[in-house]
Amino acid sequence: MPSLSHAPLPARRHSTLLVQPRLWRITSLLAARLTLALPLLLSCTGGDGKPPAVGAHPASSARAVSRPDASRPSASPTRHAQGRRVPAPSAACRLLHTLAAEAPAQVEILDDANNLESFFEALLALLSGAPGRRKVRVAFYGDSNATMDWAASYLRRVLGRHFGRGGHGFVAAGQSVPWYQHREIRTRSRRGFRAYCVTHPRITRRPYYGHSGHISFGSRVGASVTWRSADSGAPDDEVFSTVELQYLCWPRGGRLDLLVDGKSARVVDTRCPRRSFRRVTLHLPLGRHSVRVRVKTTTVGVFGAVFENSRRGLVIDGLGVGALNVKTMRAIRPDLFQAGLRARSYDLVILHTGTNMWGPGFHPGWARDVIQRIRAALGPRVSILILSPPAFGRWRKGRARGHERMAACAREKRLIAAANGTAFWDYFRSMGGLRSVARWRRSGYIHGDLVHFKPPFHELMMKRLGGAILARFRAFLKRRGLNCPSPLQRSTSP
Fold it and tell me: Which residue segments constitute the domains of the chain, with CATH numbers given?
């Protein structure tokens, strides 16, 4: 068809009358075709003359241009290009995609009985923002390698990065051994406030240890124990807004004055007709504080204090006692042990002992008793994770040699976990096994006694443990069929 610009001029008047309707029809046809093509042309430029954003779908731009009511809200962000509805990205979905990109754990957690399910359900409720779930609490029992809080502190950082940091957790009253300390909250006793632990029974007449294996007694007026925010840990766990004092109420109990930042906040009477576990809670402005217990009338028994904040997150109590093992844990009176566990309402209990375990024939029975007490306090579905002991060594002719007993104990721990339906992680194998002691010593990660490890070693091992927990949690989310959009789906959403 010739273009309009080159159409021949009419020769006569009647020819012009015939050509004009034809020109009108041609013009109308071109206009109609241009109208149909305009949305497609605009979709290639984003509707404003600019190229579309990376990942934008042409159909979505065409709908935006052809929509007659420009004031109508845009399509819901929960619909992707094909119109199939997908859930909005949640914290659990984001974590699932993050973990999918990480390397698999070197040593996996063994859990044939799915004992970690209840712990993972609590983590999922925490991520989902369930109204009744603001904290997930973990008890980390350990021996002398845990008394300086390095392991628990690094595990707080590894897991807190994904689940939030709910506070530092439990700290004993005073120092039963000079090296007992915590990274974010420091404790110190003076003037007649003496601290004891279950592995050094210097108070055989009053072995009233709490669930942490610690207790301190103030034996004269004016004696005090102080907790304060430290400057050596994670800043998020150095601040707190809730303090829970845990103390012994008994017939010989006196009165104590609870001070916050130098000012008296409450006077507590610790006298009861029968021995029992008690606690009192104070709510403070979120920040760094100093908390002190001062004896007004003797004698006062204090187990420790708990420091948490008002945020939603994970709390890990570092419960380290020098030379702790399952035999000495049985020496804690069951009523006080279980009352302390119930008060903290732990979702996961980690047992990292064995370095001081030298009773192979009795070890399974002692461990079974401790596990039964934990379940009696926290319920039969409570998650329990048993770790094998670390490898340690001894010097022979100037060379560091691994101790064979720890290899046998690691195998024994695995059998104990299987027999009692708990989860198990092979700490011994993860650090390299029996011959790794010499290598860690050459690298400067272990002290000269070949038993106690330095902070970089704890950091490395807690990253490995945290990675194993997260890998197991990822498998849990996939088993639950969590309906998460893929990253590609999210990038193509309008």
Answer: 14-66 (no CATH), 92-491 (3.40.50.1110)
